[in-house]
Design goal:
Blueprint: E1 5-10, E2 16-21, E3 25-30, E4 37-38, E5 47-56, E6 62-71, E7 77-86, E8 96-98, E9 114-115, E10 121-128, E11 131-138
Antiparallel strand pairs: 1-2, 2-3, 3-4, 5-6, 6-7, 7-8, 9-10, 10-11
């Protein structure tokens, strides 16, 4: 992992490590060595920063990261998105974007979104009246999920 890499997480199969490069790209590198590569489908339009680390699904088929982006429809507005990358999708496919609870508290300290053990929801920290809590956001079609 390069010196500008943060938030490493090992793949469930133990063969590679995913990390954030300069907080702008999701990268991976094989544990047995090799060159780092950008994860296909992680082109996040108008991204300002990827925050809080990486969450991998238990089956290793999906990755989630929290992104702040410029909202081009509203000048000088920052939008928060949960970005889900499907490793089984076509190489040039776009990631899926889901709006998080506006109280999300994703950072390198608080961590970022993670998949629940069953893969049917995301969990992440929120702040409410100065207190931190865990929030569970289902991933179903009615709520913008799988």
């Amino acid at each position: 992992m390069p010196s500008r890499g943060t938030s490493p997480v090992c793949a469930p199969d133990g063969k590679s490590v995913y990390y954030l490069d300069s907080l702008l790209a999701v990268m991976r590198v094989a544990l047995d060595g090799g060159v780092s590569e950008a994860v296909p489908g992680n082109g996040i339009a108008n991204a300002l920063e990827l925050m809080g680390g990486i969450g991998l699904s238990r089956d290793g088929k999906h990755l989630v990261v929290y992104a702040t982006t410029n909202d081009v429809s509203r000048k000088d507005t920052v939008a928060s998105k949960l970005v889900i990358i499907d490793f089984d999708a076509a190489r040039d496919s776009l990631p899926r974007f889901i709006s998080p609870d506006p109280r999300i508290a994703a950072s390198l300290i608080s961590g970022g979104p993670k998949f629940t053990a069953d893969g049917n929801a995301l969990t992440y920290a929120i702040t409410d009246d100065g207190a931190w809590s865990l929030w569970v956001q289902p991933l179903d079609a009615r709520r913008g999920g799988f």
